[in-house]
Amino acid sequence: MFSSLPFQRAKDLGHVPGAIPSEGSPATTESGQLTQTGTAGRQPAEGGESLPKILTVPIKRVTGMSRFLREKCLLSAQQVTDVLRDSPAIVLEDTSRLEYRFQYAYFRMGIQQEEMVKSGLFRVSTEEVRCRHSFLERRGLYQTPDKKGQTRIANPKLKDFLTIPEDSLLSQVALATQEEFEVFRKLMEREVQEEEGLESSDSEEEDEEDDESENRGKEGYKRRRK
Question: Which Gene3D superfamilies does the protein's record reference (predicted)?
Answer without folding.
Answer: Transcription termination factor 3, mitochondrial
